[in-house]
## 1
Amino acid sequence: MKKFCVIGNPIDHSLSPKLHNFWLKKNKIEAIYEKKLLEEKEIPKLIESIRKSEINGVNVTVPFKNSIIPFLDSLSSEAKKTNSVNTICTEEDKIIGHNTDIVGFELALRYINYDVKRKKALIIGAGGVSPSIILALKNMGCENIHLTNRTYEKAEKIKETFNDITIQKWGDIPEFDIVINATSVGLNKDNLDLDLNKFGNNKFFYDVIYNPGETNFLKEAKLSGNKTENGRMMFIYQAHQSFALWNKVLPKIDEETIEILK
Ligand code: ATR
């Protein structure tokens, strides 16, 4: 029986097993998908298990999307461009890193018909998923991208790859149309120490987090009269692409799929 898993730390919040096991069953594929809480030092052992085909595919989440890279044999062009891997698979005995977060975010915005052309975007957070959000926005024609991160140097590091973005100091909020929380803040009911009152209203607030379904970031934004969206559809679309890479099947995304994640 094939075995898949998602690695991360924390990992409790992950709904990947629920979604993948649902699709595996629907498509009558004999396999199991689990979640694994991992420490950085356990990465080599995980890679060894992939080499031995004890594990057939892995999803990577916070905080390993970048730190997993040196352990892989090669990267897809998207993973290379973003220095970020969320999906690992094997091809002819090589362990390959892919990035399906980019298309996940693109399709999530298309799903709600949000057009980013001529819009100003602000991304909060310069962690593992941020380069994917930037690349997706650029692919969709957004030319005005601002990035802010508590640790300024990490935002500067991302600017080395995407040199036309603007870095804002933490707490300096520029004019924007869409703001995206790409930090891990909110996974544990915690708060960003940013004054959301400075953000104005009639804006679009997007949170990459999908569990909890409404972070404090989105709750407060909604109370101030903004449009909000969580990361559920991004999560589904990135999983959809991972599933296709591993199983060569594109499962259905229907009401039932969306419902099981609520
Ligand atoms: P990594 O930081 O190892 O890339 P990540 O989980 O992908 O891991 O990224 C976490 C993101 O959430 C980072 O942008 C982090 O900011 P720092 O770079 O300053 O650490 C952000 N983050 C985590 N906790 C935060 C907090 N309490 N306030 C603001 N940002 C926070």
## 2
Amino acid sequence: MTEYKLLIGGKLVAGAMEMEVVNPATEELLAHAPRGSAEQLDAAVAAAKAAFPAWAALTIEARRALILTLADRIEADADAFARLLTQEQGKPLPEAQAEIAYSAAFIRHLASYDLPVKVIEDNDNRLVRQLRKPLGVVGAIIPWNFPVLIIAFKLPLALLAGNTVVIKPSPTTPLTALKLGEIMADLLPAGVVNVVSDLNDLGARLSAHPDVAKITFTGSTATGAKVMASAAGTIKRLTLELGGNDAAIVLPGADPAKVAPGLFSGAFMNAGQVCLAIKRAYVHASIYDEVCERLAALADAAVVDDGMKQGTTIGPLQNRAQYEKVKDFIASAREDGRIIAGGTTEDRPGYFLRPTIVADVSNGDRIVDEEQFGPILPVIRFDDVDAVIRAANDSPLGLGGSVWGEDREENIRVAEQMESGTVWVNKHLDFGPNMPFGGAKQSGLGVEFAEEGLAEFTQIRVINEAR
Ligand code: NAD
């Protein structure tokens, strides 16, 4: 079995404790991972603090060059990364390969930004310039659905701005993050990036730590609220990417043959464990039955199996807790609506669930109101477009959303009223490092990616000179 180590102050070290990482497709032990102690987390923060002045003093070009070598190293080892990712996370190997390729691409793009000085006023009276300075130590807290990509969302911008970083992966998917740590150990100056895995017990300490200037967090809304509370004592900067309950609205006149595959892939990628997945589909009554039939056929045709097997289209749920949670959603969906595909487990080890389509449900049913985060899609019938916009917006969450139809003007009219950070038209789940990404309402705080995302890793310093 491969040995995994924490990265603290440039050294690969054993954890104070150990924890087991299970392959969700087999429920067999995949590896022992190091479990960091509170002291090890503190040592990682101290190392990041000590490394900060020298890292911040480098030119942005020098930092950029080092960040780009990380992308090269990930690509050089892409095959091993993808296999490990499938084994620890469960997603089909082609999805894991895509996650690794996107990670390198995101790192490259995000490393390309600059932090120019902005001249606000330059006249006989005064010269006012706005500088963007790094914050210090950044804590990056990562969920289990995209364990590599979400690091690639956060790390390049944090480093480019001149911050140093402590990464805390999710307890059920720490291995790829620790493998990244191994690469970074001989790539970056000691302490610039540290990786400490835990058993769900160090996130609060990192969020409250007096020497951490900012937390960039991706995870559930409930945990995001806890991060906010722990961060309050030191007025930490926060970027929170939280839960979503994305609605797709299929307008009258949409073509079911075109729409159904788009809805299906938007809902079931990564077994539905995507913050931006379609979690509610509102379909106009005129095409409701046909869209439901097509979705059910696609669900029946899905190949649910170990992600390492060729041909698998949907892997297992990532962990037992999530598997039990989604089974519970299926049970309540069975009471509130009509299951027209799936709804069953597989008679084998592993956290497998057939993709499940639930018809005849509405707002007020648990399966519609709550984020399921699994391979289950409720389909809601509607008659009136303005009423359905209100229904879609009647949620405390607002991450993404989509509108599907043939009438461009009507698509745009509806899209502009959806209360979410991103709205797609005739697609879902298309994003890139050049587009600010963030949630409305309880789906988050702040944005990631692009210049706006970079700005969140900086402190504005205004220099105001008398003339
Ligand atoms: P989670 O909130 O359970 O865990 C996320 C991370 O927080 C883990 O690393 C965990 O160890 C850590 N953590 C646990 N308790 C903590 C505490 N008190 N303080 C600080 N950190 C703590 O989320 P999850 O189950 O890993 O991920 C699923 C959720 O993440 C879903 O709600 C999904 O929508 C959301 N998500 C959002 C985005 C986005 O970009 N908006 C992306 C992916 C996932």
